[in-house]
Amino acid sequence: MSEINLDVSGMTCGSCVKHVTNALKPLEGVQDVSVDLATGKVKVTRATEKADDLIAALIEDGYPAQLDTGGTTHAKQGGGCGGGCKCS
């Protein structure tokens, strides 16, 4: 199993966490998705090291994402949800 860490922008609430999880879980080989709303970090455990489909799925759902290169964490961004949920 591989662990892939992503930086994901636009998550502001629990509904966003659900959107992100639901976007990633159905992808091939994904075993587990762990979302840290406070830092915008997402950890994916999957059978391969492939990450481009994970990033594409998140972007398609409205959550800009990139590989986490181990840099500093960023605070969650305001301005509403990227996934179209009804948070305020």
Mean pLDDT: 86
Instruction: Return the string of H and E elements.
Output: EHEEHE
Proportion of beta-strand residues: 25-35%
**CATH class category name:** Alpha Beta
**How many distinct domains?**
1
Number of helices: 2
Read across the widest sheet, the strand sequence of neighbours is 2-3-1-4
Helix content: 10-25%
Q: What is CATH's topology name? A: Alpha-Beta Plaits
Main pleated sheet: 4 strands, antiparallel
Structural class, by secondary structure, is alpha+beta
Query: How many β-strand runs?
Result: 4
CATH architecture: 2-Layer Sandwich
Sum up the overall morphology in one term: globular
- Give the terminus-to-terminus CA distance: 37 Å
- Residue stretches low in confidence (pLDDT < 50, at least 5 long) are 73-80
Oligomer: single chain
Radius of gyration from the alpha-carbon trace, in angstroms:
12 Å
Question: How do the strands and helices of this protein lay out in sequence?
Answer:
Layout (H helix, E strand, L loop, with lengths): L1 E7 L5 H11 L5 E7 L4 E6 L5 H9 L4 E3 L21
Antiparallel strand pairs: 1-3, 1-4, 2-3
What would you say this structure looks like, in words?
- The chain has 88 residues and is an alpha+beta fold.
- The chain has one domain (2-67): Alpha-Beta Plaits (2-Layer Sandwich), CATH 3.30.70.100.
- It is 23% helix and 26% strand.
- The chain has two helices and four strands.
- The chain has helices at residues 14-24, 52-60, and strands at residues 2-8, 30-36, 41-46, 65-67.
- A four-stranded antiparallel sheet has the order 2-3-1-4, covered by helices on one side.
- The longest helix has 11 residues, at 14-24.
- Residues 73-80 have low confidence and may be disordered.
